[in-house]
Structure prediction request, 429 residues.
Amino acid sequence: MKHLYPSDLSKFVSSHWPLGGAELPAPAVLDSLLSTCYQASLLRQETIPVIFRLIVIEPEILPTEGGPPTGLHRLEFARHLEFNALELRRLSSAAHFSRTLIGVRIDPNNGPEIWGLVHSGPRWLHAIHGGRGSAPPLPDALTISVTGPGDLDVGKGREVIGHLAEGRVFEPSLNLFQSQWLQEWFASIRQERQEIHEEAKKEAAEPWAELEPDLTRVIGQHMMKRLIAGMRAFHHGGTLVVIPPEMADVFCGENPYLSIKYGFVNDEPRARFRTLIITVMNTLAKIAGDQQSIIGWRDYQQTTNPDIIKLDEAIFEMSHLVAALSTVDGAVVLTRRFELLGFGAEIHCESTDLNFVAKALDLEGDHSVVESVHAVGTRHRSAYRICSAHKDVLSIILSQDGNVQFARWKDDNVMYWDQQAAFNFTSIY
Prediction:
């Protein structure tokens, strides 16, 4: 396989750069920026790998007032620094990946130079691993993230355009939470939650505000993102098996699909995920009262109501609990309601004849390539087998390196979507 390097990434970014907003630097300057960042990625700060984010922008464009959590804090050096790999290495520990960017400008005569730091705070990570609080906007300027040795992400503001890793250039990873099929897969559960909420609203003594129909979907997505991020942080790998709620009794008893080693009693505690989401919906509607505007995700992000803050923390803790359960050998089994049936589940389905799976090349799986299952490990093969044996199961498989796959039955075959993380979550906090 031919290995690709910063110059190849530069060509890719140039051909995919969106119209409008900031323009890219000249090709030679872009090559220099990416090459220097690549060289810095191969260095170490004592025993710590060099990771950082930088933004190419004139300092005057950024405001002089404000800062995290809702704005950007611009700190310009009294003397601008030479842009080189050693300087980036030295600054990488001060410019913590999750909170600060290194500011770079292009001098017309001397080329790139480091002018200071831009403190953003960590809220931008919420879009990746879930959470409340809106992130401060990032200008539509060139951004470069060094996430490991030889690993570079290039974007325009927060929009990732290209990724260099393992000597290959990739387009941005698929965001399955934007897929239509995943939304439809949970549609009946969202409708169920909405009906429970409407019943509570009818019984309330005071008027409740209307909620955006999409709110419960977004809250559910962020809960799932938190769960996956928590599993990644353990560096252990794991499997989630998500089944139809009407099949809970079947999967908890003797069945041909799996056996749950540590099963939970069929009681309210194992349904806590759903209870928390419905309680969030009810509380948001209640505290807004009879106001005319419809309450949505932004209200959830920005509210300072102590009850919502406690509920959000409870969802966070529940996500971490399930993530910890996934470190035990075997799968964690949940229903589409996120009802926690148990963990340590051994997947059977040995009689299932499965030699090939389809790898999706787009969000909806309209295009795919066939791969042999014998090239992957036992964890992945087991997850594929149960999707083949029971066509309404969704498997979420995490490798030790943080790679995530969603697998399900589609078009007469098991299909998976590869969701490789651009960086290691435990290294950026």
